[in-house]
Amino acid sequence: MNVLVTGGCGFIGSNLVRHLRAQRPQWTVVDLDLLTYAGNLENLADLEGDPRHVFVRGDIGDRTLVESLLEQHRIEAVLHLAAESHVDRSILGPELFVRTNVLGTQILLEACYRRKVRRFVMVSTDEVYGSLGPTGAFTERSPLQPSSPYSASKAAADLLALAFHHTFGLEVVVTRCSNNYGPYQFPEKLIPLMVVNALHDEPLPLYGDGGNVRDWLHVEDHCEALLAVLERGRAGEVYNVGGGTEQRNIDLVKLLLAALGKPESLIRFVQDRPGHDRRYAIDPTKVRAELGWTPRRTFPQGLEATVRWYVEHPDWWKHVKSGAYRQYYETQYRKRLGS
Question: How many other C-beta atoms can be found within 10 angstroms of the C-beta atom of residue 79?
Fold first, then answer.
């Protein structure tokens, strides 16, 4: 089978491309990525020269490019991960998130329908459900109540994808995952940010009182779920994919500091961001019952391996600590906003 992975040089995307090449070596994986600040070809350096991995730099919003790729490579299935994904940045510039996450998805869906792509997996987030109280968990029937421009744009893309199934018959399946962690995650997200700062004995900024709760899922477990959904998921359905490992942010940061042998005095509580959801928790009963998926990595195992990966790969993340690189991606971000 020939599959297209959008956003294949990002965090989840690069782990997914690598997983597909390992688990389905007969498949050809076409990777479409614009290589914005969080997309990095170094994430897939181990696949250089692989004849069944094809990288194309481009935008999902480029209709001509997308249609030509689908036709040229005879794409049979699409795993759609390309997105603007950082909540803080969506607060600073919502327009870019709507442009990429909503309009880009619409262009991709239309192209897949016209080119008769067999299956479209829309990879989304638990953030579309909004914030939970102290008990309970999100199911696939939970109402969509996004709190940020990012999560609102993802909710819109989810509904658009499902509409293409119900209106046009495109085989769409939507997945909504809890917070991913693991190797190759850009150090603006919680775990790599805290690890990198701690390694430099720099302050660890923690929003509010640190009591926000997240359900953590190792990225490789997520990739296994995505492959199961691609191959066996029912068209027109939503599958929640969660790790079942809720952690308060403050407790998680303390675990990271202990693993690195760093003092808790590095923690700095900072002003909470607007609309910060208090708690997420995923009920993965459906994906377990229908597809037989369950996470294979315990949270302690996954977290230890993740911390070790960042400690052992300073060359991967050290460039994002440099002022020159920070200035570069801030400039690119403003340029894409048209300001």
Answer: 28
Helix or strand or coil: residue 147? Answer: coil
Q: Report the DSSP beta bridge partners of residue 30.
A: 4, 54
- Whether 232 and 25 have beta carbons less than 8 Å apart is answered as no
Query: Which residue out of 31, 59, 126, 283 is catalytically annotated?
Result: 126
Distance separating alpha carbons of residues 206 and 267, to the nearest angstrom: 7
Q: What percent of the chain has pLDDT over 70?
A: 94
CB-based contact 308:264 (threshold 8 Å): no
224 is catalytic: no
Structure tokens, 179: 């917070």
Q: Which residues are CB-neighbours of 265 under 8 A, at least 6 positions away?
A: none
Catalytic (active site) residue 150: yes
Catalytic pick from 31, 59, 129, 150? Answer: 150
Concerning whether 181 is annotated as a catalytic residue, the answer is no
Q: Which of 31, 59, 127, 224 is catalytic?
A: 127
| pLDDT tens string 262-292 | 999 999 999 998 889 899 999 999 999 999 9
Q: Are 79 and 123 in contact (CB under 8 A)?
A: yes
- The answer to whether 15 touches 224, Cβ cutoff 8 Å, is no
Sheet holding 53-57, edge to edge: 53-57, 28-33, 2-6, 77-80, 119-125, 172-177, 238-241
Distance CA 240, CA 138 (A): 8
Query: Taking the model in full, what pTM does it have?
Result: 0.92
From residue 310, give the alpha-carbon distance in Å to each of 46, 164, 206, 306, 318.
17, 40, 20, 7, 10
Segments of 135-226 assigned E as strands: 172-177, 179-181, 204-207, 213-218
Q: Which residues of 299-322 are buried (b: 16+ CB within 10 A; e: fewer)?
A: beebbeebbebbeeeeebbeebee
User: Which of helix, strand or coil describes residue 233?
Assistant: coil
pLDDT of residue 320: 54
CA nearest to 6, candidates 93, 66, 89, 71: 66
